[in-house]
Specification:
- With about 400 residues, this protein is α/β, with parallel strands linked by helices.
- It is about 35% helix and about 15% strand.
- The protein is built from eleven helices and twelve strands.
- The strands form two sheets. The protein has a ten-stranded mixed sheet with strand order 1-2-3-4-7-8-9-10-11-12. The chain has a two-stranded antiparallel ribbon with strand order 5-6.
- A hairpin with a 4-residue loop joins strand 3 and strand 4.
- The longest helix is centred in the middle third of the chain and has 16 residues.
- The protein is elongated and about 70 Å long.
- About 50% of the residues are buried.
- The structure holds S-adenosyl-L-homocysteine.
- The site of S-adenosyl-L-homocysteine has 18 residues, from strand 8 and strand 10.
- S-adenosyl-L-homocysteine (SAH) binds next to strand 8 and strand 10.
Length: about 400
């Protein structure tokens, strides 16, 4: 459902389409080692006239040492560098801008892809973990009116390697001590940057393998520490459950009733709240992983005590302890008429859930001073560039 226009009623009267997120050229990202499993990496090397055993070596550089430039690999013969670059390790991203916040414990990077499309990721250090928030698409076709990326429309799906490059660069930044507090290890990944991951199902499931599989196949991250967040594409949730990777599912619910959810999440016209919660529950049963329910608290929109009660009832009638609610105060997007709920309304919403036995944690708003919420950095940069020209 690509859209260039913000949905009606979502923006102030003088708001124009926030930006033109147009790629210079559409097509497929160049094929890269991180797109392929080890067998295919060997095949591609053999096709390029290079020894297949190099696939192991190059994969270890990439997944163990976070190195993607064959020029810098001293054990790769100089005569091979160019062929390795063109067959398996082309440059996929170049940096546009990076910003830090929270005393250097949050870094946000904006990257440009081969065709001019832009994506971003945010790296956040907490006392016991370091979490990377990644993008799965350039832009997004889901058109949720409160979300900055939703206003952009969809430019294109990212390739597996473009998704995995975000992980490699973040893992490298952690190791190199780019975050305040010194070197650390990347431990958690959430698909909560730009895009709807389940609308790019093939690339994200391959990317999950590259994240989880042990080197030289992948990074060897723990599946339990990876969260796939979705607006609620029900058939894809069931497909993901059948895949059997114990990743955590997050469902962007934002309303417990169809009347309001139809307005906040346009895809709700296709899969209703009840169907979505049933699928979320099936995911819990199949994976054994508690499902996260995301709920952006929007002032006077979805923050009423009766909606908290209805949410608790909808969850409880499907079983106990299978879901965890993460309310987050809305991070207002440029031009939006909506704002975050008051502290009092947030408190009451959370209390109602807790009183009904629902696990609930208010999510923090890390990086909101650097446009940390979903798609906002890409929006800001594009707007500035339009003003410049
Ligand atoms: N498309 C996926 C993942 C990307 S957004 C999804 O919808 O789940 C990650 C989370 O941020 C989602 O829960 C989304 O609803 C939420 N979000 C988007 N814009 C927001 C905003 N302005 N304030 C708070 N949360 C927001």
């Amino acid at each position: 459902m690509p859209t260039d226009q913000p949905p009606e009623g979502a923006t102030s009267p003088d708001a124009r389409p926030i930006l033109s997120f147009t790629a210079k050229r559409r097509g497929k990202a160049p094929s890269h080692l991180a797109d392929l499993d080890l067998t295919d990496r060997k095949r591609v090397l053999a096709d390029a006239g290079l020894p297949a055993f190099r696939a192991d070596q190059l994969s270890r550089h990439y997944f163990n040492h976070f190195e993607a430039d064959p020029e810098r690999m001293t054990d790769v013969p100089r005569t091979m560098v160019e062929a390795v670059q063109s067959s398996l390790m082309p440059t996929l991203v170049k940096p546009v801008r990076s910003l830090t916040a929270d005393d250097g414990k949050t870094i946000k990077h904006l990257w440009e892809l081969y065709d001019g499309a832009r994506v971003e990721f945010v790296l956040m250090r907490y006392p016991s973990r370091t979490t990377l928030c990644i993008s799965s698409q350039a832009g997004c076709g889901m058109a949720c009116p409160f979300c900055a990326t939703g206003q952009m429309g969809l430019t294109r799906n990212l390739s597996t390697a473009e998704i995995i490059e975000q992980v490699r660069l973040a893992a490298k930044a952690c190791r190199d001590g780019d975050l305040a507090g010194g070197p650390t290890r990347l431990s958690n990944i959430v698909f909560m940057g730009m895009g709807e991951p389940l609308a790019n199902y093939r690339a994200i499931t391959q990317a999950l393998h590259r994240m989880i599989d042990e080197p030289p196949h992948g990074f060897g991250l723990s599946a339990r520490n990876i969260t796939v967040s979705t607006v609620g594409l029900v058939p894809a949730i069931d497909k993901l459950a059948a895949l059997g990777l114990p990743v955590t599912l997050a469902v962007s619910l934002h309303a417990p009733d169809d009347e309001l959810r139809d307005e906040l999440i346009p895809i709700n016209s296709r899969w209703k709240t009840g169907e979505l919660l049933d699928a979320a529950r099936r995911y819990f049963v199949a994976s054994g992983r508690r499902v996260s329910i995301e709920y952006a608290l929007i002032k006077d929109m979805n923050d009423h005590p009766w909606r908290a009660q209805l949410l608790a009832d909808e969850l409880n009638k499907r079983g106990k302890g299978w879901a965890h609610v993460n309310p987050i105060p809305l991070n207002p997007t440029p031009g939006s008429i909506w704002t975050a709920s008051t502290a009092e309304a947030q408190r009451e919403f959370v209390e109602t859930l807790l009183n009904n036995g629902i696990n609930t944690t208010i999510r923090d708003t890390r990086g909101s001073d650097i446009d940390g919420a979903c798609g906002q950095l890409a929006t800001t940069v594009a707007t500035e560039e339009r003003i410049d020209t």
